[in-house]
Amino acid sequence: MKFGLNSLAARLIATAAIWTMLGLVLGGLVLSAAFRSAALDNFDTTLKTDLDGLIVAAGPDPENGITLEQRFVNASFTRVYSGLYYQIEPEVAGQSSILTSRSLFGGRIAPRITSRQGAFSWGEAAGPDGQHLRVVQQRIEFPDTATATPDDTLAFRITVAGDMAAVDEQIEGFNGTLIWSFLLLGLGLVLAVFLQVRIGLLPLRQVATALARIRDGSAQRLEGNFPAEIAPLASELNSLIAHSAEVVARARTHVSNLAHFLKTPLSVLASEADASPPSPLTDQVKRQVFTMRRQVDHYLTRARAAGNVSALGNRTAVEAVLSDLTRVLSRIHQTRGIEIEMDCPPNLFFRGERQDLEEMAGNLIDNACKWARHVVTVTARRDGAQLVLDIADDGPGLTAEERGRVGTRGERLDESVPGSGLGLAIVRDISKLYGGFFTLEAAPQGGLLARLTLPAIT
Q: What is the DSSP secondary structure assignment for residue 227, as one 8-state letter?
């Protein structure tokens, strides 16, 4: 699978990955906040329980103070810097002394109240050992035993404070576990999305593979079992391919019929001109008939080649074509002792029809044989996505100016050699139809090198 800015798979995966990560981040923040709230609520409940125990254990003493029954008090209050502390102070300053837990080790708590819930006040304070304390405070009243008035009361504030270190450690541990677990979950989800997209887009890759097989000539239609969503597309493509082939075949038939229709009157005119006594008129008729025949052949070849280019599935083995051509042309030119040497790999294929390659290569090899003294070399190779065909002879060659003129339709530099002057023009036109090109250069043997570049296929 290829990924890029214009890749559908990359867009789907990127979009799903972004939304997945955003969802996990938001979910993680919500879970972290929920856990922190639950941990604080649990810690506050514990502090309230210890506060209730102190209230149950508290009682007035004869000196307007407070006494505690230790059996109701948490043992942690007696260990120095244990992290659990209490402080009982009168609401009226000087009424009695402040009573603190042994765990404070003579220290005091200075709470900062931040909220109130009914009879409870909540806040924070600094502990005796640099601890971060959570504070809960409640007001209680006792009868004043030092007066005779029964309505007189003594008010006290009982403060219980607990070290938040354990709670913070729990929250930090939970957040660490949450981050790693969500990170692994996110990677797993992205991997699942990747596999889902890859499997989901598999039918499209099958269509692309089937089209490539049609393009290289391995198949004539889309083949394979496609899902219900892709099957109509495959069916329409097969119908389009069949219709295209039918249109091309019909056009080629019409062109052939037209050429046949034109050739018959031209043959009649040529015969009549040959049978007539020599005159300027008959000579003019012969020249014009010859010109018309060349034009008909030329444009017939171009029309046929254009139809072949537009058709899908064309694939031609180059070695087979060159072998047949060299064998036939060697026999034609054997009286002159011309030797044709060929070098072509067996796995080289032309993206086009065999008849067009025969037309181009046959014209070039035949032209080289006409001008060669002894040897014509035919070399075919692949250069990237292109087929390069070099045909060189050891003849007299051409100057740069002459090479520029050759290939123009009907242009001939030497009338002593048979030909119509259309061969190289046809080669140039057909190669252009296939997106290739044709050049003439000086050959290493001293003659002419014709280089034909065409689209190749694996």
A: -
pLDDT digits (tens, 9 = 90+) for 278-320: 888 777 777 777 777 766 766 666 665 555 554 555 678 899 9
- Residue 106 φ then ψ, to 5°: 85, -5
Distance, CA of 142 to chain centre: 79
Structure tokens at 252: 């080629």
Contacts of 345 by beta carbon, 8 Å cutoff, 6+ apart: 319, 380, 381, 382
| Number of Cβ atoms within 10 Å of the Cβ of 363 | 22
CATH of the domain at 378: 3.30.565.10
CA-derived radius of gyration, the chain: 50
Place of tokens 């070290």: 163
Same domain (yes/no): 112, 41:
yes
Distance from C-alpha of 111 to C-alpha of 299, rounded to nearest angstrom:
104
Residues 368 and 378: their CA atoms lie apart, in Å, by 10
Last residue of a domain, one of 128, 152, 171: 171
Query: Quick check: helix, strand or coil at residue 386?
Result: strand
CB-based contact 322:361 (threshold 8 Å): yes
**Is residue 65 one of the residues assigned to a domain?**
yes
Domain count, the chain: 3
Domain with 366, as residue range(s), is 316-457
One domain, residues 294 and 325: no
Which tokens is 228 given?
Answer: 């219900």
Query: Which of 252, 281, 310 is a domain's end point?
Result: 310
**What amino acid is encoded at 251 in this protein?**
A
Provide the residue type at 21 as one letter. Answer: M
Tokens of 331: 């026999």
Give the DSSP letter string of 298-325. HHHHHHHHHHHHHSS---EEHHHHHHHH
- Residues in a beta bridge with 440: 450
The DSSP-derived string for 103-154 is GGTT-----EEEEEETTEEEEEEE-TTS-EEEEEEEEEEEE-TTSS-TT-EE
Per-residue pLDDT tens digits for 227-251: 887 788 888 888 887 777 777 777 7
- The contacts of residue 176 (CB under 8 Å, 6+ apart) are none
Residues 323 and 283 in one domain: no
Task: Please report where in the chains the tokens 């003659």 appear, as a residue.
Answer: 447
- Cα 318 from chain centroid (whole Å): 35
